[in-house]
Amino acid sequence: MKVFSVTWLFFFCILYVFSFGQEKPRPYLLDTFTDGVLYYSSALPRKAKFNYHLVGQEIVMDFNNNKVPVNQFPDLDSVHIGNRNFILLDSKSYELLIRGPVQLLMDHKYTSQIEANEGAYGTKSHSTSVVVADQKIKTNDFYATEWNEGYELINRTDYYIVEDGSWQKFTGANQLVQIFKAKKKEIKEFVSEHKTDFHNRDDVKKIVLFALE
After folding, report:
1. Regions in the chain scoring below 70 on pLDDT
2. Cα distance between the two ends of the chain
3. Is the CB of residue 112 less than 8 Å from the CB of residue 153?
4. Pair 52, 60: CB distance under 8 Å
5. Which of 5, 55, 84, 144 registers the highest number of CB atoms within 10 A of its CB?
6. Which of 157, 45, 27, 36 shows the shortest CA–CA distance to 94?
7. Is residue 45 a contact partner of residue 54, using CB atoms and an 8 Å limit?
8. DSSP characters for 14-26?
9. From the CB of residue 186, how many other CB atoms can be counted at a distance below 10 Å?
10. 87 burial level (CB within 10 Å; 0-12, 13-18, 19+)
């Protein structure tokens, strides 16, 4: 009886680990829809709950349990979500990380692709097809809190240094030092010493502030 109990417990643990590993990806930046404010250039602010949809690359409002994208709202200037500030430029939203004569913008974006197939010896291979969205799903399903089964999300976030109307994109240290060439050596040393993670907005903000000193 004891052997049976131990065997069953082991089997249950295996099932739990397997099911945990199969958890569907979440297409939102934040864990939950969060209190925020819409700011318009020619209208009063509006309070609601918001989140950022990584695949749709747009801010989404929770309106009577329906998910409504707001990027195309007329005269929308910026959106505050919790302690994050997003600005709208040409109906596209960017998170503003540094404000001033030189701005640092974060362009959150993920692409969706079919999950890797497991082959011989545990190796995995991906389809070359990248899918932004399954066009067959209903609008509100697209904005559900879990992504489509059988797909995974790939982080393709970009950052921009904006100064005097000029935009310079970077995703890592090699591109950043091309923007701040005078501090190339210092930036590389900073990245190495602090183990800068360019998928972490706080890390990126720190390295850019260092470059601007």
Report:
1. 1-23, 117-140
2. 70
3. yes
4. yes
5. 55
6. 157
7. no
8. HHHHHHHHTPPPP
9. 14
10. middle
Distance between CA atoms of residues 113 and 115, nearest Å: 6
3-state SS assignment for residue 94: strand
The closest of 43, 37, 36 to 75, measured between CA atoms, is 43
pTM recorded for the entire structure: 0.80
- What is the rounded CA–CA span in Å between residue 21 and residue 129? 23
The per-residue pLDDT for range 141-176, each reduced to its tens digit, is: 789 988 888 889 999 999 999 999 999 999 999 999
Q: To which residue do tokens 């291979």 refer?
A: 125
Q: Taking Cα atoms as reference points, which of 46, 52, 25, 63 lies closest to residue 150? A: 25
Closest CA to 193 of 201, 181, 185: 185
